[in-house]
C-alpha cells in the first residue's frame, strides 16, 4: 500500500486523487464534526462550498435539515449550529440531515471528487479509518484541508497518526511527505506537545473553545468512518 499526503485544499490536483482511495482530514474541526454527527445518528451530511447554497438547500425542509458550519472559526449568521463537534449531540442530529459549509474542510471534500472512495478522518476515528483503508487495499492519498490554503500542523499530525495505525497492520510505502508526517507523530504521540504550535489551534484557543480542542485531540473515541459519495456523507 502506497501512502501520499496533499497538504491543503488549495494543493489538490485532479490527477493526484483520481481513482485513488482518499481520506480527508480537517480535525480542527470539520471532519471531527462530521464524524461526531454521523456517530450520533445524523442520517446524512451534505457538504457545500457557500453559505448561500447551504441556506437554499436547508430552506427546502427546515423541519429535518440543520445548518452548521463556520467562517473565520465563528458560527455563520442564520445557521443553527457552529463548527463545534460538541453541538452535534444525538438529541440534536438523530434522524436529521446536516447541511454544512466551512472555510477549509468542505472545500477539501469537494476538491477530492474523482477519487474512488472519499473517507472522512480525524483523530477521533483514526484507527477505524486505518482499518477501513486496509479493507479497500488501494493506494491512499490523505488530503489535509489545511487552513485557508496553507499547510496546517494539526491535519499533518493527524495524518501521521493514521499512517502509524496502518503500519501496525501492514507494510506501507510512504512518500517523503508521508514519511515526515509519521516521523513527527512518532515524536509527539501525546498530540499536544506539537499541535500547540499550529496557528489554527491557537486561533480556536483564542476564541475560548478549549473544550473543542480537547475533544478533537482525543484518539479513537468512535469506530464510525463516514464516507462521501454522490453528494452526501453517510
From TrEMBL:
Its cofactor is Mg(2+). The keyword Nuclease does not apply. It catalyses: (2R)-O-phospho-3-sulfolactate + H2O = (2R)-3-sulfolactate + phosphate. SUPFAM superfamilies: ComB-like. Its EC number is 3.1.3.71. Keywords: Hydrolase, Magnesium. The keyword Transcription regulation does not apply. PANTHER family: 2-PHOSPHOSULFOLACTATE PHOSPHATASE-RELATED. Belongs to the ComB family. This is Probable 2-phosphosulfolactate phosphatase.
Amino acid at each position: 500500500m502506497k501512502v501520499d499526503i496533499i497538504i491543503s485544499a488549495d494543493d489538490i490536483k485532479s490527477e493526484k486523487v483520481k481513482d485513488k482511495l482518499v481520506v480527508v482530514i480537517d480535525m480542527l474541526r470539520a471532519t471531527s464534526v462530521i464524524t461526531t454527527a454521523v456517530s450520533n445518528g445524523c442520517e446524512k451530511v451534505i457538504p457545500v462550498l457557500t453559505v448561500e447554497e447551504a441556506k437554499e438547500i436547508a430552506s427546502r425542509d427546515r423541519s429535518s435539515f440543520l445548518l452548521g458550519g463556520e467562517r473565520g472559526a465563528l458560527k455563520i449568521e442564520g445557521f443553527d449550529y457552529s463548527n463545534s463537534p460538541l453541538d452535534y449531540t444525538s438529541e440534536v442530529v438523530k434522524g436529521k440531515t446536516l447541511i454544512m459549509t466551512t472555510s477549509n474542510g468542505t472545500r477539501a471534500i469537494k476538491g477530492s471528487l474523482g477519487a474512488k472512495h472519499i473517507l472522512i478522518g480525524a483523530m477521533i476515528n483514526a484507527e477505524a479509518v486505518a482499518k477501513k483503508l486496509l479493507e479497500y487495499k488501494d493506494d491512499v492519498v490523505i488530503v489535509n484541508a489545511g487552513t485557508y490554503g496553507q499547510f496546517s500542523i494539526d491535519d499533518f499530525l493527524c495524518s501521521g497518526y493514521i499512517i502509524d495505525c496502518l503500519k501496525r497492520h501492514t507494510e506501507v510505502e510512504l512518500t517523503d511527505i508521508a514519511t515526515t508526517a509519521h516521523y513527527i507523530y512518532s515524536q509527539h504521540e501525546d498530540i499536544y506537545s506539537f499541535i500547540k504550535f499550529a496557528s489554527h489551534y491557537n486561533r480556536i484557543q483564542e476564541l475560548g473553545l478549549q473544550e473543542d480542542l480537547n475533544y478533537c485531540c482525543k484518539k479513537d473515541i468512535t469506530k464510525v468512518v463516514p464516507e462521501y459519495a454522490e453528494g452526501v456523507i453517510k
